[in-house]
Automatic annotation (TrEMBL):
A Pfam entry, by short name: Aldo_ket_red
Alphabetical keyword list: NADP, Oxidoreductase
Organism for this UniProt entry: Sipha flava (yellow sugarcane aphid)
Active site residues per record: Y62
One Gene Ontology term of the molecular function aspect: oxidoreductase activity
Domain NADP-dependent oxidoreductase: 22-304
Chain sites annotated for binding substrate: H124
Coiled-coil portions: none
The organism's taxonomic lineage, starting at the top: Eukaryota, Metazoa, Ecdysozoa, Arthropoda, Hexapoda
UniProt site positions, description: Lowers pKa of active site Tyr: K91
InterPro entries the record matches: AKR, Aldo/ket_reductase_CS, NAD(P)_OxRdtase_dom_sf, NADP_OxRdtase_dom
Protein name, entry field: Aldose reductase-like isoform X1
Annotated family: Belongs to the aldo/keto reductase family.
Amino acid sequence: MSPSSQLVKMVKFNNGQQYPILGLGTWQTTPDIQGTDQTEMYEAIKSAINIGYRHFDCAAYYNNEKFVGMAINEKIKEGVIKREEIFITDKLWNNKHNPEEVVDTLKDSLKLLCLDYIDLYLIHWPMSTTETPVARDSQNRFIESIYSYLDTWKAMERCVQLGLTKSIGISNFNMKQVKDILGIATIIPVVNQVENHPYLTQNKLKEFCETNGILLTAYGPLGSPYRPYKRTKSTKGILLDDPMVKKLAAKYKKTNAQILIRFQIQRGVLVIPKSSHPVRQKENFNVWDFEISTEDMDSLESLNQNLRYVKIEPAQHMKDYPFNEEL
């Protein structure tokens, strides 16, 4: 195991499994659809492993499982890592909520990853769509299917029972939907992966989940700087450029991104910043040698404005769209 990887703080899930609190996100590092840039994800994962990353966040929808698996298995063959030192999160996409398809869908992902099991499997969104992943109606909206995330959850539990995944969880679920899952679950979700950053702290959801033994994982922890969104007078622009973030970066002699990543770590939130660039990967990983003061943590918390970058507008009409509820 890389000496640097030993610095990573582990968190304990409600089922006793340990997981690295810091990981690497892989959304939008997908190879070109024509296959002309298939090495980007492959090289990104290899460089991250060399730096010390051991937690990788994937999803079927990202269309990069094959390249994640190739990189991990090459590093295992090289003797750089062992399988048990790597922690893989994968996700079930919206068009596979049919309980009869969940197990086979995970098996398909395992084949692409060239792994016997994954460490964490999530329902990517609570909404269920038709079989075509992004099919649209005449109004350019996703087409809803009949399946309930409650039925899907029972099939997720089957994945654990079959040894295909060690843990299961949810993603983008609001408080009501988490309550619904808790009402029928025989295996409690270990995490709820949600958009989370100082502009969207989601403290009430965090408190509710943690009270019920569910940890949050923060995606978009840097404020999704490359994701387009509508700015209004109520927004403060790009989080990485926020004056408070810049001020604290200067104070602690760290990058703006390092401040935002450390913010989540000190809140006990798993965090998965995305980068395919080795220099930025290394910078984002180098967050273990400082601590943000309580006063400065409060200053970051005060930036909250409930600004959500990820809205999935074609799904807003669906009955299980999570953001029509306040929490």
